Amino acid sequence: MKPLGPIPAGFDSLDGELAIGGQSASSLVERAGGTPLFVYSSSMLKERVASLRRAMPARLRIHYAMKANPYAPLLELMGSLVDGLDIASGGELKMALAAGLDPAAISFAGPGKRDEELEAAIAGGITLNLESVGEARRAFAIGDRIGKTPRLAIRVNPDFELRGSGMKMGGGAKPFGVDAAKVPDLAREVITAGADWRGLHIFTGSQALDADAIIETQANVLTLAANLANEIGADLLHLNMGGGFGIPYFNGDQPLDITAIGTALEERFASLPEELENTEFAIELGRYLVGEAGVYLTRIVDRKESHGTTYLVTDGGLHHQLAASGNFGTVVRRNYPAAIATRFGEEPVEEANIVGCLCTPLDRLADQAMLPHAEVGELVAVFCAGAYGASASPSAFLGQGPARELLV
Ligand SMILES: *Cc1c(COP(=O)(O)O)cnc(C)c1O
Protein backbone atom coordinates (compact mmCIF):
# COMPACT_ATOMS: atom_id res chain seq x y z
CA MET A 1 0.00 0.00 0.00
CA LYS A 2 1.18 3.51 -0.83
CA PRO A 3 -0.56 6.55 0.63
CA LEU A 4 -2.40 9.03 -1.56
CA GLY A 5 -1.72 12.73 -1.21
CA PRO A 6 -4.12 14.88 0.86
CA ILE A 7 -7.36 15.91 -0.87
CA PRO A 8 -7.54 19.72 -0.75
CA ALA A 9 -10.18 21.21 1.55
CA GLY A 10 -13.39 22.46 -0.03
CA PHE A 11 -14.64 19.41 -1.93
CA ASP A 12 -17.97 17.94 -0.83
CA SER A 13 -19.89 14.86 -1.60
CA LEU A 14 -23.27 14.96 -3.36
CA ASP A 15 -25.38 11.80 -3.78
CA GLY A 16 -22.29 9.75 -2.97
CA GLU A 17 -20.21 11.50 -5.60
CA LEU A 18 -17.46 14.09 -5.55
CA ALA A 19 -19.01 17.53 -6.04
CA ILE A 20 -17.19 20.52 -7.50
CA GLY A 21 -18.90 23.89 -7.26
CA GLY A 22 -22.03 22.14 -6.02
CA GLN A 23 -22.29 19.80 -9.03
CA SER A 24 -21.62 16.07 -9.00
CA ALA A 25 -18.72 14.66 -11.01
CA SER A 26 -20.99 12.72 -13.35
CA SER A 27 -23.21 15.74 -14.05
CA LEU A 28 -20.11 17.82 -14.83
CA VAL A 29 -18.86 15.15 -17.22
CA GLU A 30 -22.26 15.08 -18.89
CA ARG A 31 -22.27 18.86 -19.19
CA ALA A 32 -18.77 18.89 -20.72
CA GLY A 33 -19.62 16.10 -23.14
CA GLY A 34 -17.33 13.44 -21.74
CA THR A 35 -14.03 12.53 -20.15
CA PRO A 36 -11.14 13.22 -19.68
CA LEU A 37 -12.10 16.52 -18.15
CA PHE A 38 -10.43 19.21 -16.06
CA VAL A 39 -12.88 21.04 -13.81
CA TYR A 40 -11.86 24.28 -12.08
CA SER A 41 -13.87 25.77 -9.24
CA SER A 42 -14.30 29.54 -9.47
CA SER A 43 -15.45 29.77 -5.85
CA MET A 44 -12.26 28.06 -4.71
CA LEU A 45 -10.16 30.39 -6.87
CA LYS A 46 -11.90 33.43 -5.42
CA GLU A 47 -11.58 32.16 -1.88
CA ARG A 48 -7.88 31.45 -2.39
CA VAL A 49 -7.09 34.96 -3.57
CA ALA A 50 -9.26 36.48 -0.83
CA SER A 51 -7.56 34.50 1.95
CA LEU A 52 -4.14 35.37 0.58
CA ARG A 53 -5.05 39.06 0.59
CA ARG A 54 -6.23 38.81 4.19
CA ALA A 55 -2.87 37.32 5.17
CA MET A 56 -0.57 39.61 3.17
CA PRO A 57 0.23 43.30 3.73
CA ALA A 58 -2.20 45.56 1.83
CA ARG A 59 0.77 47.13 0.08
CA LEU A 60 1.77 43.84 -1.56
CA ARG A 61 0.44 43.31 -5.06
CA ILE A 62 -0.49 39.79 -6.10
CA HIS A 63 0.36 38.62 -9.60
CA TYR A 64 -0.76 35.46 -11.33
CA ALA A 65 1.93 33.50 -13.20
CA MET A 66 -0.26 32.28 -16.04
CA LYS A 67 1.97 29.42 -17.11
CA ALA A 68 0.36 27.46 -14.27
CA ASN A 69 -2.96 27.50 -16.13
CA PRO A 70 -3.76 29.56 -19.23
CA TYR A 71 -7.31 28.20 -19.81
CA ALA A 72 -9.10 31.29 -21.15
CA PRO A 73 -12.13 31.42 -18.80
CA LEU A 74 -9.88 30.80 -15.79
CA LEU A 75 -7.38 33.41 -16.98
CA GLU A 76 -10.15 35.95 -17.34
CA LEU A 77 -11.38 35.22 -13.82
CA MET A 78 -7.88 35.38 -12.36
CA GLY A 79 -7.30 38.66 -14.18
CA SER A 80 -10.28 40.12 -12.35
CA LEU A 81 -9.00 38.90 -8.97
CA VAL A 82 -5.29 39.78 -9.00
CA ASP A 83 -3.25 42.97 -9.53
CA GLY A 84 -1.00 41.81 -12.32
CA LEU A 85 -0.10 39.00 -14.62
CA ASP A 86 3.25 37.38 -15.30
CA ILE A 87 3.72 35.83 -18.70
CA ALA A 88 6.59 33.84 -20.16
CA SER A 89 6.07 33.82 -23.93
CA GLY A 90 4.57 35.69 -26.85
CA GLY A 91 1.84 33.05 -26.98
CA GLU A 92 0.87 33.80 -23.39
CA LEU A 93 0.92 37.51 -24.25
CA LYS A 94 -1.67 36.89 -26.98
CA MET A 95 -3.84 34.87 -24.58
CA ALA A 96 -3.56 37.56 -21.89
CA LEU A 97 -4.55 40.35 -24.26
CA ALA A 98 -7.37 38.24 -25.71
CA ALA A 99 -8.66 37.79 -22.15
CA GLY A 100 -8.85 41.58 -21.92
CA LEU A 101 -6.13 42.01 -19.31
CA ASP A 102 -4.52 45.43 -18.81
CA PRO A 103 -1.15 45.56 -20.64
CA ALA A 104 0.23 47.92 -17.99
CA ALA A 105 -0.23 45.17 -15.40
CA ILE A 106 1.56 42.49 -17.43
CA SER A 107 5.23 41.61 -17.13
CA PHE A 108 7.09 39.20 -19.35
CA ALA A 109 9.97 37.10 -18.00
CA GLY A 110 11.58 34.08 -19.61
CA PRO A 111 14.78 33.21 -21.41
CA GLY A 112 15.05 33.12 -25.18
CA LYS A 113 12.55 35.84 -26.04
CA ARG A 114 12.53 36.16 -29.82
CA ASP A 115 12.56 39.53 -31.57
CA GLU A 116 8.88 39.16 -32.55
CA GLU A 117 8.00 38.53 -28.91
CA LEU A 118 10.03 41.53 -27.73
CA GLU A 119 8.38 43.68 -30.37
CA ALA A 120 4.86 42.57 -29.44
CA ALA A 121 5.60 43.29 -25.79
CA ILE A 122 7.15 46.71 -26.43
CA ALA A 123 4.39 47.70 -28.83
CA GLY A 124 1.77 46.59 -26.30
CA GLY A 125 3.31 48.48 -23.37
CA ILE A 126 4.16 45.31 -21.46
CA THR A 127 7.05 45.35 -18.96
CA LEU A 128 9.92 43.15 -20.10
CA ASN A 129 11.89 41.46 -17.35
CA LEU A 130 15.26 41.30 -19.08
CA GLU A 131 17.11 38.03 -18.87
CA SER A 132 20.44 39.19 -20.32
CA VAL A 133 22.48 42.09 -21.66
CA GLY A 134 21.90 40.84 -25.19
CA GLU A 135 18.15 40.87 -24.69
CA ALA A 136 18.34 44.43 -23.33
CA ARG A 137 20.17 45.65 -26.43
CA ARG A 138 17.72 43.94 -28.76
CA ALA A 139 14.89 45.63 -26.84
CA PHE A 140 16.52 49.08 -27.23
CA ALA A 141 16.93 48.51 -30.99
CA ILE A 142 13.35 47.32 -31.43
CA GLY A 143 12.04 50.25 -29.39
CA ASP A 144 13.97 52.66 -31.65
CA ARG A 145 12.76 50.93 -34.80
CA ILE A 146 9.07 51.01 -33.88
CA GLY A 147 9.26 54.38 -32.14
CA LYS A 148 8.08 53.15 -28.75
CA THR A 149 9.88 53.44 -25.41
CA PRO A 150 10.34 49.97 -23.93
CA ARG A 151 9.26 49.40 -20.32
CA LEU A 152 12.17 47.45 -18.85
CA ALA A 153 12.93 45.70 -15.60
CA ILE A 154 15.82 43.34 -14.93
CA ARG A 155 15.40 39.82 -13.73
CA VAL A 156 18.16 39.21 -11.21
CA ASN A 157 19.89 35.88 -10.80
CA PRO A 158 20.53 36.11 -7.06
CA ASP A 159 23.36 34.32 -5.28
CA PHE A 160 20.87 32.54 -3.02
CA GLU A 161 17.88 30.31 -3.58
CA LEU A 162 14.67 29.34 -1.87
CA ARG A 163 15.42 26.58 0.63
CA GLY A 164 13.28 23.45 0.24
CA SER A 165 12.07 24.64 -3.13
CA GLY A 166 10.84 21.97 -5.52
CA MET A 167 12.43 23.56 -8.57
CA LYS A 168 15.55 25.63 -8.09
CA MET A 169 15.64 28.68 -10.29
CA GLY A 170 18.18 30.94 -8.56
CA GLY A 171 21.75 30.70 -7.22
CA GLY A 172 24.86 29.89 -9.24
CA ALA A 173 25.00 29.62 -13.02
CA LYS A 174 21.51 29.84 -14.53
CA PRO A 175 19.89 30.52 -17.89
CA PHE A 176 17.49 32.81 -15.98
CA GLY A 177 18.18 36.43 -15.14
CA VAL A 178 21.27 38.59 -14.96
CA ASP A 179 23.88 37.74 -12.33
CA ALA A 180 23.37 40.10 -9.39
CA ALA A 181 26.88 41.56 -9.70
CA LYS A 182 26.19 42.61 -13.30
CA VAL A 183 22.77 44.19 -12.63
CA PRO A 184 23.86 47.75 -11.69
CA ASP A 185 25.80 48.25 -14.94
CA LEU A 186 22.94 46.94 -17.04
CA ALA A 187 20.37 49.04 -15.15
CA ARG A 188 22.41 52.17 -15.77
CA GLU A 189 22.64 51.22 -19.45
CA VAL A 190 18.83 50.84 -19.58
CA ILE A 191 18.35 54.26 -17.99
CA THR A 192 20.96 55.92 -20.25
CA ALA A 193 19.34 54.37 -23.32
CA GLY A 194 16.18 56.29 -22.45
CA ALA A 195 14.04 53.24 -21.70
CA ASP A 196 11.26 53.37 -19.11
CA TRP A 197 13.13 51.89 -16.12
CA ARG A 198 10.70 49.79 -14.07
CA GLY A 199 12.79 47.94 -11.50
CA LEU A 200 13.78 44.43 -10.51
CA HIS A 201 12.43 40.89 -10.59
CA ILE A 202 13.97 38.37 -8.19
CA PHE A 203 12.57 34.85 -8.46
CA THR A 204 14.20 32.23 -6.27
CA GLY A 205 12.23 29.00 -6.58
CA SER A 206 8.94 27.15 -6.52
CA GLN A 207 6.80 24.79 -4.45
CA ALA A 208 8.08 25.62 -0.97
CA LEU A 209 5.91 24.54 1.96
CA ASP A 210 8.19 25.86 4.68
CA ALA A 211 7.07 29.37 5.72
CA ASP A 212 10.41 30.05 7.43
CA ALA A 213 12.27 29.38 4.19
CA ILE A 214 10.05 31.84 2.34
CA ILE A 215 10.38 34.44 5.11
CA GLU A 216 14.16 34.11 5.02
CA THR A 217 14.24 34.36 1.23
CA GLN A 218 11.98 37.40 1.16
CA ALA A 219 14.30 39.12 3.64
CA ASN A 220 17.27 38.29 1.40
CA VAL A 221 15.38 39.56 -1.65
CA LEU A 222 14.63 42.90 0.05
CA THR A 223 18.24 43.30 1.14
CA LEU A 224 19.55 42.48 -2.32
CA ALA A 225 17.06 44.84 -3.97
CA ALA A 226 18.04 47.70 -1.63
CA ASN A 227 21.73 47.13 -2.30
CA LEU A 228 21.20 47.02 -6.05
CA ALA A 229 18.99 50.13 -6.00
CA ASN A 230 21.69 51.92 -4.07
CA GLU A 231 24.37 50.91 -6.57
CA ILE A 232 22.16 51.79 -9.53
CA GLY A 233 21.53 55.19 -7.99
CA ALA A 234 17.92 55.53 -9.17
CA ASP A 235 14.55 55.00 -7.52
CA LEU A 236 13.26 51.46 -7.62
CA LEU A 237 9.68 51.82 -8.83
CA HIS A 238 8.79 48.15 -8.74
CA LEU A 239 10.13 45.00 -7.11
CA ASN A 240 8.73 41.63 -8.08
CA MET A 241 9.83 39.55 -5.10
CA GLY A 242 9.16 36.18 -6.74
CA GLY A 243 6.84 33.67 -5.15
CA GLY A 244 7.48 30.03 -4.51
CA PHE A 245 4.38 29.35 -2.38
CA GLY A 246 3.73 25.62 -2.59
CA ILE A 247 0.68 23.40 -2.17
CA PRO A 248 0.50 19.97 -0.49
CA TYR A 249 0.65 17.29 -3.17
CA PHE A 250 1.89 14.30 -1.22
CA ASN A 251 1.13 12.38 1.96
CA GLY A 252 2.68 14.24 4.90
CA ASP A 253 2.83 17.62 3.12
CA GLN A 254 1.43 20.40 5.30
CA PRO A 255 -0.26 23.51 3.89
CA LEU A 256 1.92 26.61 3.82
CA ASP A 257 1.47 28.99 6.77
CA ILE A 258 0.68 32.18 4.85
CA THR A 259 -0.23 34.07 8.03
CA ALA A 260 3.34 33.70 9.26
CA ILE A 261 4.67 34.91 5.91
CA GLY A 262 2.29 37.88 5.83
CA THR A 263 3.12 38.89 9.40
CA ALA A 264 6.86 38.76 8.76
CA LEU A 265 6.49 40.74 5.54
CA GLU A 266 4.34 43.36 7.28
CA GLU A 267 7.17 43.83 9.79
CA ARG A 268 9.75 44.20 6.99
CA PHE A 269 7.56 46.71 5.20
CA ALA A 270 7.32 48.74 8.42
CA SER A 271 11.10 49.27 8.52
CA LEU A 272 12.22 49.38 4.91
CA PRO A 273 15.60 50.72 3.89
CA GLU A 274 15.39 54.18 2.34
CA GLU A 275 15.97 52.78 -1.17
CA LEU A 276 12.71 50.84 -0.99
CA GLU A 277 10.45 53.29 0.84
CA ASN A 278 8.47 54.19 -2.28
CA THR A 279 8.78 50.90 -4.11
CA GLU A 280 5.73 48.98 -5.27
CA PHE A 281 6.06 45.32 -4.24
CA ALA A 282 4.56 42.27 -5.91
CA ILE A 283 4.67 38.51 -5.53
CA GLU A 284 4.01 36.19 -8.45
CA LEU A 285 2.22 32.93 -7.82
CA GLY A 286 1.04 30.16 -10.07
CA ARG A 287 0.22 26.85 -8.42
CA TYR A 288 -0.64 28.38 -5.04
CA LEU A 289 -3.49 30.34 -6.63
CA VAL A 290 -4.93 27.73 -8.97
CA GLY A 291 -3.48 24.28 -8.25
CA GLU A 292 -5.92 23.06 -5.61
CA ALA A 293 -9.01 24.42 -7.40
CA GLY A 294 -8.67 21.94 -10.27
CA VAL A 295 -9.71 18.29 -10.56
CA TYR A 296 -8.93 15.92 -13.42
CA LEU A 297 -11.77 13.46 -14.09
CA THR A 298 -11.27 10.29 -16.10
CA ARG A 299 -13.42 7.24 -16.70
CA ILE A 300 -12.44 3.65 -15.94
CA VAL A 301 -12.46 1.75 -19.24
CA ASP A 302 -11.02 -1.53 -18.00
CA ARG A 303 -10.54 -3.37 -14.75
CA LYS A 304 -8.04 -6.21 -14.75
CA GLU A 305 -5.80 -8.37 -12.57
CA SER A 306 -2.15 -9.13 -13.27
CA HIS A 307 -0.20 -11.39 -10.93
CA GLY A 308 -2.55 -10.51 -8.11
CA THR A 309 -2.47 -6.75 -8.73
CA THR A 310 -5.66 -4.88 -9.66
CA TYR A 311 -5.44 -2.30 -12.43
CA LEU A 312 -8.05 0.37 -13.04
CA VAL A 313 -7.33 1.51 -16.58
CA THR A 314 -8.71 4.97 -17.35
CA ASP A 315 -9.26 7.00 -20.49
CA GLY A 316 -6.88 9.68 -19.15
CA GLY A 317 -3.22 9.69 -18.23
CA LEU A 318 0.09 11.43 -18.39
CA HIS A 319 -0.79 13.14 -21.66
CA HIS A 320 -2.98 15.45 -19.54
CA GLN A 321 -1.56 14.97 -16.06
CA LEU A 322 2.17 14.52 -16.54
CA ALA A 323 2.87 15.82 -13.04
CA ALA A 324 0.64 13.23 -11.34
CA SER A 325 2.44 10.49 -13.26
CA GLY A 326 5.67 11.64 -11.58
CA ASN A 327 7.35 12.76 -14.78
CA PHE A 328 7.31 16.56 -14.35
CA GLY A 329 10.21 17.60 -12.14
CA THR A 330 9.99 14.89 -9.49
CA VAL A 331 12.81 12.53 -8.56
CA VAL A 332 10.84 9.87 -6.71
CA ARG A 333 7.27 9.20 -7.84
CA ARG A 334 4.66 9.62 -5.10
CA ASN A 335 0.89 9.54 -5.36
CA TYR A 336 -1.05 12.72 -5.91
CA PRO A 337 -4.37 12.93 -4.08
CA ALA A 338 -6.87 10.80 -6.01
CA ALA A 339 -10.27 9.22 -5.40
CA ILE A 340 -13.04 7.26 -7.04
CA ALA A 341 -15.24 10.26 -7.83
CA THR A 342 -18.40 8.16 -8.10
CA ARG A 343 -17.81 6.72 -4.60
CA PHE A 344 -16.55 9.83 -2.83
CA GLY A 345 -16.31 9.30 0.90
CA GLU A 346 -16.81 5.53 0.71
CA GLU A 347 -14.46 3.41 2.79
CA PRO A 348 -11.47 1.98 0.91
CA VAL A 349 -11.69 -1.81 0.56
CA GLU A 350 -9.05 -2.79 -1.99
CA GLU A 351 -5.60 -1.92 -3.19
CA ALA A 352 -5.44 -0.93 -6.86
CA ASN A 353 -3.21 0.82 -9.36
CA ILE A 354 -4.85 3.56 -11.40
CA VAL A 355 -3.18 3.85 -14.78
CA GLY A 356 -3.76 5.79 -17.97
CA CYS A 357 -4.48 4.55 -21.46
CA LEU A 358 -1.04 5.20 -22.92
CA CYS A 359 1.10 2.27 -23.95
CA THR A 360 4.01 3.15 -21.65
CA PRO A 361 4.78 2.09 -18.06
CA LEU A 362 5.28 5.76 -17.22
CA ASP A 363 1.53 6.28 -17.40
CA ARG A 364 0.53 5.91 -13.76
CA LEU A 365 -2.00 8.03 -11.89
CA ALA A 366 -1.94 6.22 -8.51
CA ASP A 367 0.20 3.30 -7.34
CA GLN A 368 -0.93 0.69 -4.80
CA ALA A 369 -3.70 2.95 -3.53
CA MET A 370 -6.39 1.87 -1.05
CA LEU A 371 -9.72 2.65 -2.75
CA PRO A 372 -13.41 1.76 -2.71
CA HIS A 373 -14.22 -1.00 -5.20
CA ALA A 374 -14.81 0.63 -8.60
CA GLU A 375 -16.10 -0.88 -11.79
CA VAL A 376 -15.75 -0.04 -15.48
CA GLY A 377 -17.66 3.17 -16.26
CA GLU A 378 -16.98 4.83 -12.91
CA LEU A 379 -15.05 8.08 -12.60
CA VAL A 380 -11.60 8.68 -11.09
CA ALA A 381 -10.61 12.11 -9.74
CA VAL A 382 -7.02 13.30 -9.55
CA PHE A 383 -6.75 16.42 -7.39
CA CYS A 384 -4.24 19.30 -7.43
CA ALA A 385 -4.85 19.41 -11.17
CA GLY A 386 -5.43 23.16 -11.50
CA ALA A 387 -1.78 23.98 -12.20
CA TYR A 388 0.65 22.43 -14.68
CA GLY A 389 -1.98 19.99 -15.92
CA ALA A 390 -3.59 20.44 -19.31
CA SER A 391 -1.05 22.93 -20.68
CA ALA A 392 2.03 21.23 -19.21
CA SER A 393 1.38 17.73 -20.49
CA PRO A 394 2.17 16.12 -23.87
CA SER A 395 -1.43 15.90 -25.14
CA ALA A 396 -0.36 14.90 -28.67
CA PHE A 397 1.50 11.83 -27.37
CA LEU A 398 0.06 8.65 -28.87
CA GLY A 399 -2.47 10.68 -30.79
CA GLN A 400 -4.62 11.19 -27.72
CA GLY A 401 -5.45 14.87 -28.05
CA PRO A 402 -6.37 17.39 -25.37
CA ALA A 403 -8.71 16.97 -22.41
CA ARG A 404 -11.91 18.96 -22.03
CA GLU A 405 -11.82 21.85 -19.58
CA LEU A 406 -14.60 23.52 -17.61
CA LEU A 407 -14.71 26.43 -15.16
CA VAL A 408 -17.67 26.14 -12.81
C1 LIG B 1 6.91 29.28 -13.11
C2 LIG B 1 7.15 30.61 -12.53
C3 LIG B 1 6.31 31.09 -11.53
C4 LIG B 1 5.18 30.30 -10.96
O1 LIG B 1 5.63 29.24 -10.21
P1 LIG B 1 4.60 28.47 -9.22
O2 LIG B 1 5.43 27.43 -8.59
O3 LIG B 1 3.53 27.92 -10.07
O4 LIG B 1 4.09 29.47 -8.28
C5 LIG B 1 6.54 32.35 -11.05
N1 LIG B 1 7.55 33.11 -11.54
C6 LIG B 1 8.39 32.68 -12.51
C7 LIG B 1 9.46 33.55 -12.98
C8 LIG B 1 8.22 31.41 -13.02
O5 LIG B 1 9.06 30.97 -13.96
From TrEMBL:
GO molecular function: diaminopimelate decarboxylase activity
InterPro entries tied to this protein: Ala_racemase/Decarboxylase_C, DCO2ase_PEP1, De-COase2_CS, De-COase2_N, Orn/DAP/Arg_de-COase, PLP-binding_barrel
Key words, A-Z: Lyase, Pyridoxal phosphate
SUPFAM superfamilies, A to Z: Alanine racemase C-terminal domain-like, PLP-binding barrel
Active site: C359 (proton donor)
Residue ranges annotated for the Orn/DAP/Arg decarboxylase 2 N-terminal domain, each copy included: 45-290
Keyword Lyase on entry: yes
CDD domains reported for this sequence: PLPDE_III_Btrk_like
Endpoints of the signal sequence: none
Cofactor: pyridoxal 5'-phosphate
Pfam family, one: Orn_Arg_deC_N
Keyword Lyase included in the entry's annotation: yes
Record PTM N6-(pyridoxal phosphate)lysine, positions in chain: K67
EC number(s) stated in the UniProt entry for this protein: 4.1.1.95
GO biological process: lysine biosynthetic process via diaminopimelate
PANTHER family noted in UniProt: DIAMINOPIMELATE DECARBOXYLASE, GROUP IV DECARBOXYLASE
Protein name: L-glutamyl-[BtrI acyl-carrier protein] decarboxylase
Upper classification of the organism: Bacteria, Pseudomonadati, Pseudomonadota, Alphaproteobacteria, Sphingomonadales
